[in-house]
Structures are given as structure tokens and as C-alpha cells.
Design goal:
Elements: H1 6-34, H2 38-64, H3 75-88, H4 94-125, H5 129-160
The protein binds fe (iii) ion (2 copies).
Length: about 160
């Protein structure tokens, strides 16, 4: 691996995000399936549809760069998702499990927010206006998703979860 230019770094970040989104496409249906609270379930469903669009945007960016869309194993996302799977596979109180799912989902969103923010800034800096716009669009969706999760947690799910025995 050699990073001589910002362009090299930009492409590497895109590959990381591409693979991260693919991992998320596989993880979200499981989270949707085990979520108890209907709004949380629906939120995961909605974000899965957004995620497909986000992959399409990355496809478009690679195309504009005359590159084949390509991922590179995102180890960060692997770690976050495997921690999330512990909650997905856990037994326990439904409200507590939902609070755990929200925690995992927010960790995913925060990773994406930092990745897309960086990629967007690289794209602007490199003069890829269209890529910067597409990355900003995804960044906005990830931020909205994060805020919705916070609202769900604060509005009900966490308060319904038993604090202690
Ligand atoms: Fe995403
Ligand atoms: Fe996301």
C-alpha cells in the first residue's frame, strides 16, 4: 500500500465505505428482524433501503472516476457489526435488547459519518464536484439516521428498559 497523493487516499476511503455499506446491507435485515419496538423495526427497514441507494451512489462515483466499483474489507465495520451481533443473538428483556440494538446502530452510523465526511472533503479538495455532492447526500442520511435513533432512545425505548433488577 502506497499513498502518494490525496487521490490515492480518496480511492482507499471509497473502497472502505463500499465494503462497509455491503456489510451493513447484510446486518440490517437481522437487526430489523429482532427489533421489538415497531418504530425501531421500521427504522431499520427504511435505512436498509437508503443503504442500497448509498451503494448506488458509490457505484456512480467509481464510474465517474473510470474505476470498477471495488471494496476493501473494512475491519472497523467488521468489529462494530460483530459486537452488534452479540446483541442480535442475545436473549433478555425486549426493551433492554432494543436499547442495545440502538447502541450498535449508532456506532455504525458514527463510523459512516466520519468516513463520509472525510471522503466528501477529499472529493471537494480534488475538484470532484459531483462526487462531493453525492457523498454529502449520504452523509446527511447517516446523520439523520443517527438523530432518529437518539430520538427513539430518548422518547421511549431506553426509558422503558428496566434500569436494574
Ligand atoms: Fe450507509
Ligand atoms: Fe448508515
Amino acid at each position: 500500500m502506497k499513498f502518494q497523493t490525496l487521490q490515492d487516499l480518496f480511492v482507499d476511503t471509497l473502497k472502505d465505505l463500499y465494503n462497509a455499506e455491503q456489510q451493513i446491507e447484510l446486518a440490517l435485515p437481522k437487526m430489523e428482524q429482532v427489533a421489538h419496538h415497531p418504530e425501531l423495526k421500521q427504522g431499520f427497514h427504511q435505512h436498509l433501503e437508503q443503504t442500497h441507494q448509498q451503494v448506488n451512489r458509490l457505484d456512480q462515483i467509481f464510474k465517474d472516476l473510470n474505476m470498477k466499483p471495488q471494496g476493501k474489507t473494512c475491519k472497523g465495520m467488521q468489529g462494530i457489526i460483530s459486537e452488534g451481533e452479540e446483541v442480535v443473538n442475545a436473549k433478555g428483556d425486549p426493551d433492554v435488547l432494543d436499547a442495545g440494538l440502538i447502541e450498535s446502530a449508532q456506532k455504525v452510523e458514527h463510523y459512516e459519518i466520519s468516513g463520509y465526511g472525510t471522503a466528501r472533503t477529499f472529493a471537494s479538495r480534488l475538484g470532484y464536484t459531483n462526487a462531493a455532492r453525492l457523498l454529502q447526500q449520504t452523509l446527511d442520511e447517516e446523520k439523520q439516521t443517527d438523530e432518529k435513533l437518539t430520538a427513539l432512545a430518548e422518547r421511549g425505548i431506553n426509558t422503558q428498559a428496566k434500569a436494574s433488577k
